[in-house]
Amino acid sequence: MALSRDAIVQANDIPTETVPVPEWGGDVIVRGLTGDELDDFQGSIRQFRRSMDGRGMEPVLIQQGMHAKLLVKCLVDDHGERLFQDSEAAELGAKSGRVLERLYDVAQTLSGLSEDEQEEMEGNSETPSPGDDSTSSSPEPSGTPSPNSSDESQPES
Predict the structure, then answer these.
(1) Residue 130 within a domain
(2) Is the residue at 99 inside a domain?
(3) Structural domain contains residue 67
(4) CA distance 32 to 41
(5) CA–CA separation, 57 vs 153, rounded Å?
(6) SS3 69
(7) Is the N end or the C end of the chain the one with fewer CB atoms within 10 Å?
(8) Which tens digits make up the pLDDT trace of 79-115?
């Protein structure tokens, strides 16, 4: 028997897991992302740049703040309410990298983020310097504008 629209909408399909964090003095609840949250997270860590051959665009993984960007969406209280807003990612990102990595792994699994996709993106990863909005595949020599500099793609949000 096929599911009805109401059955799909009412299904409780977002998994959670309680994770001990002795470094913080207790446990935290990590929940998987909703579809909209997954799209938002993936959009926040991907940019597109011109391919090396200049014929197309290629995805680039922006690792800066990646762990915290996921975790602010996934750490919840006993009632399932988020503990952090997206704007608080930098504050969470200042916590122990070891702890964040452990929680990120749980959040990634619960959210269905593919390790293969992550590894593929990491092959093209960059960590832009603060204030760098460039999506160029290589730096231009100083004072020599690229012939395509005015049509470089902007990061997608």
Answers:
(1) no
(2) yes
(3) yes
(4) 12
(5) 9
(6) helix
(7) N
(8) 999 999 999 999 999 999 999 999 999 999 999 987 6
Cα–Cα distance between 144 and 66 in angstroms, integer? 33
Domain range enclosing 102: 34-124
Instruction: Choose among 83, 103, 106, 86: nearest CA to 95.
Output: 103
Q: Are 31 and 14 in contact (CB under 8 A)?
A: yes
Q: What span, in angstroms and rounded, lies between the C-alpha atoms of 110 and 154?
A: 31
Distance, in Å, from the CA atom of 57 to the CA atom of 112, rounded to the nearest integer, reads: 26
Distance between CA atoms of residues 91 and 120, nearest Å: 28
What is the domain count for the chain?
1
Question: Helix or strand or coil: residue 77?
Answer: coil
- The model's pTM: 0.68
pLDDT recorded at residue 122: 52
Whether 131 is covered by a domain: the verdict is no
Chain position carrying tokens 């998987």? 32
Q: Which residue has the tokens 């800066």?
A: 64
**At 51, is the secondary structure helix, strand, or coil?**
coil
